[in-house]
Amino acid sequence: MQVSSLNEVKIYSLSAGRSLPEWLSDRKKRALQKKDVDIRRRIELIQDFEMPTVSTKIKVSRDGQYIMAVGTYKPRLRCFDTYQLSQKFERCLDSEVVTFEILSDDYSKIVFLQCGRFVEFHSQHGHYYKTRIPKFGRDFSYHYPSCDLYFVGASSEVYRLNLEQGRFLNSLQTEASESNVCDINPVHFLFAMGTAEGKVECWDPRTRNRVGLLDCALSSVTADTEIEGLPSISALKFNGALNMAVGTSTGQVLLYDLRSSNPLIVKDHHYGLPIKSIQFHHQLDLIISADSRIIKMWNKDTGKIFTSMEPEHDINDVCLYPNSGMLMTANEAPKMNIYYIPVLGPAPKWCSFLDNLTEELEENPESTVYDDYKFVTRKDLENLGLAHLIGSSLLRAYMHGFFMDIRLYHKAKMMANPFAYEEYRREKIRQKIEETRAQRVQLKKLPKVNKELALKLIEEEGEEQQFSKKRKQKNLPSLLKDDRFKVMFENPDFQVDEQSEEFRLLNPLVSKISEKRKRKLKILEELEAQGQEEEEEPEGKASDAESSESSDDEKGWVEEVRKQRKLLRQEEKLKRQERLKEDQQTLLKPQFFEIKEGEEFRSFKDSAKKQKLMKKSLEDRLKLEEKLGTLNVSDTTVGSKQATFKLKKSEQQRKQQEAEKRHRQERKTLRRSASHLKSRRGRGQLFH
Fold first, then answer.
1. Which family does it belong to (predicted)?
2. Measured distance CA(289)–CA(251) in Å, rounded
């Protein structure tokens, strides 16, 4: 069992841990449980609560006894009996299930909407009847008063199938090109459907007329959201008679009051993924919305996050067990997850032992999910020399850093700084000695860090005490005695750097006041060295010199700022001159490079181009060679690809070919000249 906490809400993952194979014998299972702590601590709430490959939908019967899930592969339905904590039956189907609905209180009446436009009915004994709808369906709802099934899908029509008469009725003609989801209000039975255009159409089943239209796509766009395309409706759920929640394909959840066309609240998941499921928790006024990556629980009035969960695998469906704090998910993995959140409600009666178990865990807290990991930032990784591990499985990205195994962190830290333990040991010894010294009668002395700041606080405290005595007010607590600011006077990392540019510009008059404090600090250090007792400065009014120094006008302040800026410019100029001298003194040493045997060096650019080309992928290299003409890719008549290419020749081969070409041209010219001479000789033109 894994325990995680967000916003002080404990979430217990009951399906965490490895599952044992079915073919293992009991003896081997017991041996594994003795060796592996994770297997020994795991909780198998329902036996074999999983699918062969993927689970797509999960629902609970109205009596709460049966949990049904569909998945692949092969397409199947599995029914689990909560009273027996095991699987009751399994039924294989002809095609994959898009969604299903439990019509009865138990498992005796089930309707499946399948991929191949099939609608399949199952009774208690198994398959009962199968029919088809004209277009591919995506969702359906059951209207209890009239026994009608409403199917929506890749069509502008809403198909109605009456289960009492056993025939299709007249369809509802809508303005939408396609519909994705639908739902029926459990109070007044209003039928609502979400379209691909981002609208919600509401129909009255009694008159079969449209009574309302909501443009959710326009309302989901706010100042903070970035929308690339038109959002469609991906989830729809009624809550009571007047509230309705709508989920979009871009990751927004809109809560509506049916009496208004504007949403009460818009909640963005900030992942850009379609909303898969929406559930309502009435006891705490929460909305549970889920996309494929995260499950978020938030207050429906304020939109404030209550808690959230991020499973390891993508989410397909979420089911909240009625009147309890148990949550089940269907995932892109064989195992279906079960979560128990005690804040949402008690455990179901068939697993009431979970309440006692969680109470014991809260009394004796054990290691949580991240106790064996160390959070490090990118700068920490560079200091440890582990920046090359970014992107590997050894680091898990989280917020502005990474989680890494605590053992790997200690090993890397020991290698990076082998004397860290000795420094830590000396620091602890020094702290112990100071603690023992604190028990003795000792002088009142200033801290080792930020002495001037401590002296300033002591002086201000004295002035405030005198002022409070006159006004008869209570003294405020001192910062030197406050535990929250104790580290500021002990840790050298908090030392105020008075030579920094920011300090000198933002505090131009501090230097005048600090000169007096520095003189006082020297006197105090001499007294401490001689072992004399330090006497506190008597309370009273400040001297005339101090009052004159503190009462500088605005002109003096401006002059001090100008003086500091002039000094900073002079210091920067000196630093630049020193760097220029160092650069002139440094001599550039020649660098030698070794050329591989059989290669000719032409320029550094060619080697750089060659290295850059080798770093590219095969696809990019093929595209480049195709542009240069050395490669030709064409389609054949069979449907496959044919590639012809020219081999690149080395420099030696190229020179040899050029020499042969010149030789052939010379021989050709000689033959032409010889034939020309013969022709002239035959005609007698040679002697003329």
1. Belongs to the WD repeat NOL10/ENP2 family.
2. 10
Q: Are 183 and 141 in contact (CB under 8 A)?
A: yes
pLDDT tens sequence across 509-555: 555 555 555 666 667 667 666 654 444 444 444 444 444 444 445 56
Indicate the residue type of 599. Answer: E
Any idea what DSSP says for residue 485? Answer: G
C-alpha 539, offset from chain centre: 58
Q: What is the pTM of this model?
A: 0.54
Strand stretches in 514-580, DSSP E: none
Write down the domain spans for the chain: 2-363, 373-416
Which neighbouring-strand residues pair with 4?
11
How many CA atoms are closer than 13 Å to the CA of 183, on its beta-carbon side? 22
Question: CATH classification of 2-363, choosing from 3.40.50.11810, 3.90.650.10, 3.30.450.20, 2.130.10.10?
Answer: 2.130.10.10
Q: Find, among 308, 330, 306, 254, the residue nearest to 69 by Cα.
A: 330
Edge-to-edge order in the sheet of strand 401-405: 373-377, 401-405, 395-398
For 325-361, write each residue's pLDDT tens digit: 999 999 998 889 999 999 998 989 988 888 888 877 7
Per DSSP bridges, beta strands 233-239 and 641-645 are: unpaired
For residue 339, the Cα-to-chain-centroid distance in whole angstroms is: 20
pLDDT computed for residue 217 by the predictor: 84
Q: E-assigned strands of 240-335?
A: 243-248, 252-257, 265-268, 277-281, 286-290, 295-299, 305-309, 315-320, 326-331
